[in-house]
Amino acid sequence: MTRMIVDCAHYREGHRQHDGPMRPEDAAVICRRDPGFVWLGVVEPSAEELERLQRVFGLHELAVEDAQSFHLRPKVEQYEEGIVFVVLRTARYVPGEEEVEFGEISVFIGPSFLITVRQGAASDLHASRLRLEARPNLLREGPVAGLWAIVDKVVDDYAPVVEELERDIEELEQIVFSGAEAPISRIYLLRREVSDFYRAVHPLLAPVSGLARGTVLDVGDSLRQYFRDVNDHLELINEEVAAQRDLLTTILQANMAVVSVNQNDIVRKISGWAAIITVPTFIASFYGMNFRHMPELAWRGSYPLVVAFMVLTGLVLHRSLKRAGWL
Question: Are residues 17 and 133 in the same domain?
Answer without folding.
Answer: yes
